[in-house]
Amino acid sequence: MGLSLPGKRVLNAAGFAACAGLIAYALYSEHVLYYEPCPLCVLQRVAVIALGLLFLAAALHGPRRRGGIAYAALVALTGLGGLVAAGRHVWLQHLPADRVPACGPGLDYMLDNFPLQQVVDMVFTGSGECATIDWQFLGLSMPAWVFIAIAALTAGGVWNNLRR
Questions:
Q1: Which of these, 115, 114, 113, 131, lies nearest to 39 by C-alpha position?
Q2: pTM above 0.85, yes or no
Q3: Are strands 136-137 and 140-141 parallel, antiparallel or unpaired?
Q4: Which of 49, 61, 69, 153 matches a 20 to 30 Å C-alpha distance to 17?
Q5: Is 88 exposed, middle or buried (0-12, 13-18, 19+ CB in 10 A)?
Q6: Cα gap 46→69, rounded to integer Å
């Protein structure tokens, strides 16, 4: 009697549920624990939401081979974007204090006052508030856990949607 894996739809739905859980905790951290998200945190949230929407679409769609390849590619690209944002955030958190960039304006202010390309450049440059570590679990900051979660979700999503 062999071990049987759940179907692609079930695992895509599980990916969606995991992303929803990550966003729920991010909102809890912001609104209950009062941890203000920095611009890189917001980008990581966007990546997790986009991954969740891809997982939901794949779960509802139940694609065949070519559709599975398309979903796998979209999950890989979206996950890569999330990994870049989370990786940059973790890197900023590990800079020596004298190398941390100065704190910049909030994301809302930047979006209201600068062209989108300049906002993207400023966000990826990071600022002092991005280097602050307010929360840790098992010695890792929230962006480090987000990096791990996005890596696992991306790998799992690509594998699931490419499998026969």
A1: 131
A2: no
A3: antiparallel
A4: 69
A5: buried
A6: 23
